[in-house]
Write a structure and sequence with these properties.
Helix content is 52%, strand content 6%. With 145 residues, it is mostly helical. The protein has a two-stranded antiparallel sheet with strand order 1-2. Helix 1 crosses helix 6.
Length: 145
């Protein structure tokens, strides 16, 4: 499984919004500049995220975006599923029940199911707040004498 640029950039955008949650609505151009992502690409991501009511939008002079809920309410798994679709490591796990004709005899199916479970449990346990906390820890550990 490989997370696409769209998924990685969506996560970076939402972390940026979480980091600036006290700034009110944040302009897309500001996020693009801070994150080194083209504004045009972020516009495509916003259209995906807007379908899920993950963002509040304000148009006009003071327009921009903000998270609809607190940062601890959003998990990395939820965000990646919005942008990536399935997080399964193999195609046969994309449907439930499994439609693969070999699933009854597949010696590796349990391996893929176990990996899929670990991926989802981990990504669903990490929130935007957790990412900000990890970032702050790295910053405080990064000192020069």
């Amino acid at each position: 499984m490989k997370i696409s640029t769209k998924g990685r950039y969506a996560l970076r955008m939402l972390v940026d919004l979480a980091e600036h949650k006290n700034d009110g609505f944040v302009a897309l151009k500001d996020i693009a500049q801070r994150q080194g992502i083209s504004k045009k690409y972020l516009e495509q991501i916003v259209s995906i995220l807007n379908k899920s009511d993950i963002l509040k939008t304000n148009r006009g002079f003071q327009g921009g975006y903000m998270l609809a809920k607190p940062p601890q309410s959003y998990t990395v798994g939820e965000i990646l599923r919005m942008t990536e679709g399935s997080l399964s490591p193999v195609a046969c796990l994309d449907s439930d029940p499994i439609e693969c004709e070999r699933s009854g005899d597949c010696p590796t199916l349990a391996v893929w199911q176990g990996l899929y479970k670990v991926i989802n449990e981990y990504l669903d346990s990490v929130t935007l707040s957790d990412i900000l906390d990890m970032q702050n820890e790295r910053r405080t550990d990064d000192y020069i004498i």
